[in-house]
Amino acid sequence: MVHVYPQTKSATVNPLKSSQPLGAALAFLGVEGAVPLFHGSQGCTSFALVLCVRHFKETVPLQTTAMDELATVVGGAGHLEEAILNLKERANPRLIGICTTALAETRSEDFARQIANIETMRAEELGAEIVLANTPDFDGALEEGWAKAVAAMIERITRPGQQAPRSKRARVIERSTKPREQPWKRKKVAILPGWHLTVADIEHLREMVESFGLKPVILPDVSGSLDGTVPDRWMPVTYGGTSVEDIQELGTAVQCIGVGEHMRRPAELLQKLTGVPYILFQSLTGLKNVDRFVSLLSEISGVSAPAKIHRCRSQLQDAMLDGHFHFAGKKIAIAAEPDQLYQFATFFTGLGAEMVAAVTTTGASEILEKVPAESIQIGDLGDFEDLAGGADLLVTHSHGRQAAERLGIPLLRVGFPAFDRLGSQHKLTILYRGTRDLIFEAANIFQANQHTPSPEIVDALRKRRNAG
């Protein structure tokens, strides 16, 4: 059984984790026409905005209530109302996602009541969905903030109750009056991706589901809003992602699929509200996990996997045969959020590598019990550097580059933020193709950093044998 050691330091050195409000903001950015609103000081928002812009290399519509010293003492309801009305007037968003920060949360204000009062008194001026996610900085980490925002959107926007079944006579009439050229109505599948899925991952996931004739509704869908496209005009809100109407109609899906342990609560909430059953995939990386996912899609759709999916699976099998020589016996050190730690730890150990160091941000996730490591440290990148000596590869985000330089160990950049390399959001890490690409990337790093014997060393060894 894995041992999880709590954080013991009184100060963080070279932080590993990002805060809950930032995770919630990232989730709200996956909704079309949305603006995340940090309820707190300008400094809290500025720091999160810098990380988002450096990571995505895009304009990010992140706003703040700009609480000052007076609002901190007497309460920030006035600042919250003013910010919401200003956003509606200037940007006209479809959704305003409020992410509370530690500054506002420490006063124990009733934010839900404040928002209800604003909606009652300013009903004619609003016309937008206002979703509250309680995400104090002093608790949790990025993945918990993401999950809370998704759960809040489902609770606030999704219509409760199942779609009313039609009578047999109504179905017969519909078939007899429907034009033959009209396409058949596809089964809808609700997908709740974890924060650790990249833009390319979500786009590839959609293509996989659609290849079975199913209609995926992905919440949140950052592949539509943060995919690096250039709009033809300035947009004060997100210009892609899941529509509010799609969130409202999540209850008409035949199946919900969650990716990552932190998406269990939103999936359970959707099931409770609408009756849509859910299945949770703790990882979509690795042959066994993807096979299970493909089998589920085949079962839902009633059709077998298309030929191109079989071809991708065969390519992954070949990559595993080609690459496993480079992974066997390699020592891996990973620092990441719990679900991403599990994703990459199972990937490397499945190819014959060994986990020598595992550091994560929070001990609240149940997935930590399944991580294939002897121990896990809750800590920062300072702890990671202390534990990772002697490893063959470090796996973490861009803030781990200094530790990699000091230790002289190559770094595989994953997660958030990744700001010192281009194209991080277009890197595939899931399904057959993503697993194949990860094998090639890691194996190439191993090959580029292996110490081959030089002629001088070989000659010295030969002379030593001859002397003996």
TrEMBL record:
GO terms for biological process: protein-containing complex assembly. Pathway: Cofactor biosynthesis; Fe-Mo cofactor biosynthesis. The lineage of its organism: Bacteria, Pseudomonadati, Pseudomonadota, Alphaproteobacteria, Hyphomicrobiales. Residues 160-179 are annotated as: Disordered. Keywords: Nitrogen fixation. Residues 19-446 form the Nitrogenase/oxidoreductase component domain. This is Nitrogenase iron-molybdenum cofactor biosynthesis protein NifN. Coiled coil: none annotated. Signal peptide: none annotated. GO terms for molecular function: nitrogenase activity. Belongs to the NifD/NifK/NifE/NifN family. It comes from the Bacteria. This protein may play a role in the biosynthesis of the prosthetic group of nitrogenase (FeMo cofactor).
